[in-house]
Predict the 3D structure of the following.
Amino acid sequence: MTAALYWDIFCKVIDNYGDVGVCWRLAADLAARGQKVRLWCDDLSALTWLAPESVHQGVPGVEVVAWNEAPTPALPGDVVIEAFGCDPPPDFVRRMAQRVSPPVWINLEYLSAEAWVERCHALPSPQSNGPGAGLTKWFFYPGFTEATGGLLREGGLIDRRASFDRAPWLHSRGLTLQAGERLVVLFCYANPALPALLQMLGDQPTLLALTPGPAQEQVHRLALPRGVRSIDLPWLSQTEFDHLLWSADLNLVRGEDSLVRAVWAGRPFLWQLYPQSDGAHGVKSVAFLDQLLGGNAKQAVATWPWTVNLQRLWNLWNGLQTEPKATEPTPEELSWPELEPWTLAVEKLRTALLLQPDLSSQLMQFVARHALPGRRLEAPSS
Ligand code: TRH
């Protein structure tokens, strides 16, 4: 049993909800493991729906603090996590350096399945100048292999998933399926491939559950094929969003946090990566497909012909080209991947990932290894 430490997590909301979504999950998970967490966030608005308990009754062990320009006299805790390189305030970093035993300072990075992540995970970055001169900042990379920091997976998640009862939950949310209808969840960015995908959904009676934002905005402008009806969802809490993904027959998710949740859901899914102007999302996409399809997505095509359809559809969904074709497939050339092997591939990946330690456990072990001897537990005040 590790002694409780004080953790400061800094989160800057750049765009969308992944930054605050990941930071909240981490804060709540650490607190559930007996740690004391102070979450500094420069935009708390999404927490009202993503984690309403954080705003209303509060969550034991987590203090949420509005991070603004105003100087704060807060004393740093034992661990300082800056999410996605967001740079804690200089005066706070100065106080970190002044502590008798400085905090373990971690930069929690974005999730990627690319091979370089293993090489960069847990590398030190000694600070030679600035307010933190003399301190060491550590890079911590989440990931899909043993040599990375793992994935967020709160205690009991998989048991809750296994005992989840879909029908009453759907009923409670007004998502009543008609006989033979499948449930498809759409959480996406603006996506030029949406019309083609909607046409494909017309092959079977479908209830399309639309998350707020681009999914609703785009679908409202399009004609739905026969047999497909849609329903607008409100923003759900993360817990309810999980339930939604667990209930679906097909999940269309975006961003890294929802990718992880789609894997834990164990249902077939397509992932829309955050599009980057330099095309970096293409490399990330291939790296994840490699993970999903037994290590090498290209070679998987020879062994498992069903993966051809998956990769074509996946690439179309991400505006990427499928090799060796020089052009995108036309809607007529697209077909659904076979459902059974697609589901099995997701379940297999989930099983493999469950054998690896989760991100919070790894962070706690990392901190225990890198804390300076003689660390005193100091209760910080904000
Ligand atoms: O919102 P996102 O697109 O965030 C992305 C990623 O973080 C990406 O790394 C970043 O570069 C980009 O923004 C700028 O997708 P993501 O990561 O899945 O985060 C969404 C969060 O919102 C996730 O925690 C799930 C949560 N969510 C709910 O809790 N309820 C909902 O109803 C929905 C739709 C999402």
Q: What stands out?
A: The pocket of 2'-deoxy-thymidine-beta-L-rhamnose is lined by residues 14-19, 21, 50, 110, 187, 211, 235-238, 241, 254-258, 274 (CB under 6 Å).
